[in-house]
Design goal:
The protein is of the alpha+beta class. It contains 12 helices and 8 strands. The protein is globular and about 60 Å long.
Length: about 280
């Protein structure tokens, strides 16, 4: 069973197609510069060289040995430390795999969807948990002659149990970057992305100049304000379409004044048109 891929995109496509999981190891110094979302849940383990990780409205420090969990509705983007080699494992898990392998007592999806006051996307592992995670990744890389598909499924479930156990015991909402101006800007965008937004409006409500706002986004989020706004709108669109909202209503509720533009932007970020995504949901 092939579950290791050369790129994250290939892992995403495989997880989505098979409703299972896929992963990849990468040491590319400059990751994708665009904020993105996809149909699978993601586990990112930062071996070394990470810097900041933007996930929805939070910017986390990405330190060596940190693990992050992201669901299919959370827009995200990681930046690296240019002075180090950026090494990480990225695992894509389809929600159906989580649910079909959970039990009444063990919910494998909770680390991806439980976002309360004391639960963040960042999960700090103990030394023994880090060693166990790396051991599992190494085992997933191996090709077994008999029962390979079953063995790898078991290993993937073992990884998810490990992560959920660590998440339940020590995930904290206090682990993300704090900057009053960037927090104000992100909070304003998240609250008002369905309305017309401009750099001037956001800067004024964040008590900084437009130039300062742009510099802050580049520094803490590694992206532009416009891309962040788009990511918020597309993430919300996926939620609304999944809940049964029509494409027309979704476009309006997410702040897209032009229907054709909504379809074009959605397809660019998600890979399919909102109409197909709606039918798929």
């Amino acid at each position: 069973m092939k579950c290791k891929f050369k790129t994250c995109t290939e892992a995403v496509l495989y997880a989505d197609k098979t409703k299972t999981f896929g992963f990849n190891y990468s040491d590319i110094q400059s990751p994708d510069q665009n904020i993105h979302i996809h149909n699978s849940c993601e586990v990112l383990y930062c071996i070394e060289g990470g810097k900041n990780f933007l996930i929805n409205d939070k910017v986390y420090d990405a330190e060596d040995g940190d693990l992050f969990v992201i669901n299919q509705f959370e827009a995200h983007k990681i930046t690296s430390d240019s002075s180090k080699k950026f090494r990480r494992y990225i695992m894509q898990v389809h929600p159906e795999f989580l649910y079909s392998n959970s039990s009444d007592k063990t919910d494998l999806s909770q680390c991806f969807y439980k976002r309360g006051k004391y639960n963040s996307n960042k999960v700090r592992l103990t030394d023994s948990q880090r060693a166990k995670f790396m051991e599992c990744m190494n085992r997933l890389c191996k090709e077994n002659e008999f029962g390979d598909d079953i063995l790898k499924k078991v290993i993937a479930i073992e990884v998810l149990i490990l992560i959920n156990s660590a998440f339940s015991s020590n995930a904290s909402s206090e682990s993300y970057e704090s900057n009053d101006s960037i927090k104000a800007a992100i909070a304003y965008i998240n609250k008002n992305f369905s309305q017309h937004l401009s750099l001037e409006i956001i800067a004024r409500n964040s008590y900084v100049s437009v130039n300062q706002l742009c510099r802050l986004f580049n520094r803490y989020c590694g992206t532009t304000v416009a891309r962040y706004i788009t990511s918020c709108r597309i993430a919300e669109a996926k939620k609304l379409l999944s809940s049964g909202k029509s494409v027309t209503d979704t476009a309006i509720l997410c702040g897209f004044e032009d229907y054709a533009n909504f379809i074009r932007v959605f397809k660019k970020h998600v890979g399919i048109t909102p109409g197909k995504y709606n039918a798929k949901g």
